[in-house]
Amino acid sequence: MAEALKSILRAKGEFVKTRIDSGQDPTPAQLAAFLSGLVTELGPAIPHCPAEAVRLLKRGFAYVGWDVRANRGVTKTPPTAAKVYDFLTKAVAKIEDFEAKMAQTVQPTHAELEDLSMACTKLWDLDYARLAPGMDYMIDLQSGKKPYCTGDMAEGPLFKWVSPDVLERPTWAAFIALLDNYEASAGKAERVTNEERHEESRFMDCIFHQPCMRYVHRWLVAKGKAPASEAAFKEKLHQMWFGLYRRKVENDSSGFEHVFVGEEKDGAIVGLHNWIQLYLEEKKGNLNYLGYIKPRQRGVSYTSPSENEQLITIQFEWGPEGEAELKPESSSFIGTSPTFEFALYSLCFLGGEEKQVVEIGPYVVEVTCYNMHHHGKDYVGTSFPAAAPGMTPTHAATKIQAHTRGREARKDPRGAQEKKNQNHAAKKIQSQYRGRRTRSDPR
User: Fold this and answer.
1) Of the ranges 141-150, 292-301, 400-409, which is most confident?
2) Is 281 helix (H, G, I), strand (E, B) or coil?
3) From the CB of residue 222, how many other CB atoms can be counted at a distance below 10 Å?
4) Is the pTM above the cut of 0.90?
5) Phi and psi for 421 in degrees, rounded to 5?
6) Contact between 13 and 92 (Cβ < 8 Å)
7) Among 72, 119, 279, 417, which is least packed, fewest CB within 10 Å?
8) pLDDT tens-place string over residues 60-119
9) Which residues are marked as active site?
10) What is the largest CA-CA distance in the chain?
């Protein structure tokens, strides 16, 4: 995962060791120049490394008193050559230990292959880049409302602040570069430039070096849902997410645009389920947060959500002043990495049903994934989470079956096959939870 990074560190370590062994210890000025040059040389390798490996490296630089961001020393006493050598060798060892652990971690277990909930929770655990509320960002939910209620229940913005360095991380920066590549209005055909294709490829390269995406690939291969070749799988995902299809006119939409960027269709906002896009649009003054949405479940006690929640449902207006359109209800993860969301929705789209209730970390989540079949190919029509607190397996099965009956009532030609698929999904959910109860309570 980080071969280029380790190769540079080993070579630099050998160079320092040679100087020490020959009795030619470098001067403080020479060591400062050496560390400055090392930071510059490592730059191109960083985007292709897991976030955890990069964090290990940054801790090593801090150990010798070097600020990577400013690329200068931060201590009055310069490091010795021996300390620099110790840093270089330990950095390689720690990165290799991390890779060894990751090689085992990203391999799905038999239980995870049989239980989509377990696979989704594993993804949550593998999201090492997920932000910490109060440390990396802070939201202000303010007051709640029902989706049909009008009026602004939030005087202030949703986001109090987000640490600027977060958005400069390679994968996050590659994701953000994609957000301005689309026409917001469905009905306007997209024109993809060579620069935009390059940005898509750069983002795909970044996420494929992250544990979440590596796990999803192995899970799908084991289930016969994806090609074993990383290049072929990457191509499949690229077509599925970035390939253009018709929402109102030919080539006016894509899965990535709908889910992560958002669209305006017939005077309404559709899609836009990504917190980074919400934050950036709010910061530009293009998004007005109107309050969080209270849950609908009957018989479920309601308490106000915490500012530390990482899955929320909100209402907002989006668009230039005087032209903003309302989205009455929209759910998004908060603080999760772009890789996690891309991996989760890809897993559920290729390996699950159109609707499934799964456990994701501390949350019970209904994940919706609609397929847009166009010219013989499958594309992501939409994919989004919705909190399902208090939902039991019976509730989940009933909701899935009701969803199927609704399609049949509307005479959807896909209804017959979908009924078969959804009934199977409902039975599977009930079976999985019965198995869990049996394992947790042998009685």
Assistant:
1) 141-150
2) helix
3) 16
4) no
5) -65, -45
6) yes
7) 417
8) 899 999 998 889 898 888 789 999 999 999 999 988 887 777 767 889 999 999 999 999
9) 258, 273, 327
10) 85
